[in-house]
Amino acid sequence: MEQGWLHGEGFLLCLILYLLLQGRGDTFTINCSGFDQHGVDPAAFQAAFARKAFRPATNVSIPICVNISFTLSAILEVDAQLQLMTSFLWLNMIWYNPFITWNPEECGGIRKLGMATENLWLPDIFIEELMDTDQTPPGLMAYINSNGHIKYSKPMRVTSICNLDIFYFPFDEQNCTLTFSSFVYTVEKMVLGMEQDVQEILETSQNIIWNKGEWVLQGIHQMMKMTAGTNGYDQIVFYVAIRRRPTLYVINLLVPSSFLVAIDALSFYLPAESENRASFKMTLLLGYNVFLLMMNDLLPSSSTSLISVYFALCLSLMVLSLLETIFITYLLHLATTQPPPMPRWLHSLLLHCTSPRTCCPAVPWKGNMDLAHLPGVKEPMELVGKVPHPRETELNGCPGSARNQQEDKAQKLHLVRLWVRLSHMMDTLLFRLYLLFMATSVVTVIILWNT
Q1: Do the Cβ atoms of 241 and 213 come closer than 8 Å?
Q2: Rg of the chain, C-alpha, whole Å
Q3: By CB neighbour count within 10 A (0-12 exposed, 13-18 middle, 19+ buried), where does 174 fall?
Q4: Rounded to an integer, what distance in angstroms lies between the CA atom of residue 69 and that of residue 80?
Q5: Which catalysed reactions does the entry list for this protein (predicted)?
Q6: Cis peptide before 356 (omega within 30 of 0)
Q7: Which end of the chain is least crowded, N or C, by CB within 10 Å?
Q8: Distance of alpha carbon 374 from the chain centroid
Q9: How far apart are the C-alpha atoms of 198 and 189, rounded to whole Å?
């Protein structure tokens, strides 16, 4: 409703100004008799061409109305670091010149002429967000109707400043502004109107825009601001909404990173006492760092994005997994040589987490580690089989020593089992943390892609 009201108000204002000037237009009708026999006579327009340095108005107190529209044909580049958007558009302007009118019946039925813009007065419409010089090519043509209406279209490569928010990269949407205004003429000398409705501008732009680029045109919204006063300038502000295509970045960034994290999670199936587990995780960590260095050019460097947080979390998990593997390896080595006594609070926590009544996470690899693989550890049956007979102990003169030795070894074996169970629990918790992180990442990507 607001856009339609603004468009209707601009059109009504320009219509009123046109009617005010139309009454004086017949005085300046060009004599074009003989155009049908000898073609267009340049001398007939010399009086009008001589006025090109002045605003085409028969009454200096009445502002001239310029209707504008544009067609966005390409989004060439969006620079997140410099906060710039480079686009290509065609700017269309229509205004009334009362000094260039003729009667088509007297001019061989000619109702429209094309003239070089160097002979005409042109509105000084510019884009306020423009960060580069206007590179409009010279030698363009403007088309003039017999009733004095002039239409001028010029191509523009616009490098405009835009407040970019790349937190959701590569699923980000940007909203850039294009403000059209006059550089010289205030609102008392020139007012701006709309040649087309903003919906027509959007439909035309979407039909001809280059759709195979990185950015997709989502919408164009328009708001008119009129500033009255001697120092006020009429403005028309357009909001251009664009969306990035995320497929390239998902394939090149998210998928390889997810594969490396998944492989690191599968490494928990390797036995904790294996010497290859730490070296395998170290290789994955080095490979992930090389991957980040190679893909650094694709990441935005102006501010923190969600994908940068994701990569930092992946790297942190892999480092934490490597440190946990080193700690477990040291713990098992210590437990098999001289197992330290387990603190009471840790023993209670271990019994609580591994109790069948609690929801204890299942170990990703086999639940009971084969203790025979650990050096210095013997099974209880093996220890019992080597216990000497009481008569042998009496003959050896060491009564009770075998029982004490058996109890010491059984206690040592019990401590080894507790420390091994603790390593199982640590592996399981970290493995579940990996699964939770990967599931959260997948759900987040799906939500951002669909919205």
Answers
A1: no
A2: 41
A3: buried
A4: 27
A5: K(+)(in) = K(+)(out); Na(+)(in) = Na(+)(out); Ca(2+)(in) = Ca(2+)(out)
A6: no
A7: N
A8: 52
A9: 25
Q: What is the DSSP letter of 403?
A: H
Tell me phi and psi for residue 149, to 5 degrees: -85, 130
Residue 351 sits at the vertex; the CA angle it makes with 347 and 354, to the nearest 5 degrees, is 135
Backbone angles phi, psi at 136, to 5 degrees: -65, 125
Q: 85: alpha, beta or left, given left = phi > 0 and alpha = psi -120 to 50?
A: beta
> pLDDT of 259-304, one tens digit each?
999 999 998 888 877 778 888 999 999 999 999 998 887 787 767 8
Handedness of CA 262, 266, 268, 274 (dihedral sign): negative
Model confidence pLDDT, tens digit, residues 330-380: 877 776 766 666 666 655 665 656 654 444 344 444 444 444 455 444 443
Domain residue limits, the chain: 25-244, 246-346+408-450
Cα(7)–Cα(223) distance, rounded to whole angstroms?
A: 9
d(CA 144, CA 152): 9
Region 246-346+408-450: CATH code: 1.20.58.390
Q: Span 25-244: which CATH code?
A: 2.70.170.10
Q: Cα(389)–Cα(395) distance, rounded to whole angstroms? A: 10
Backbone region of residue 225 per phi and psi (left: phi > 0; alpha: psi in -120 to 50; beta: other values):
beta
Residue 91, classed as helix, strand or coil, is strand
Which residue from 220, 184, 190 is spatially nearest to 89, judged by alpha carbons? 220
Q: How far is CA 308 from the centre of its chain?
A: 12
**Displacement of CA 259 from its chain's centroid (Å):** 23
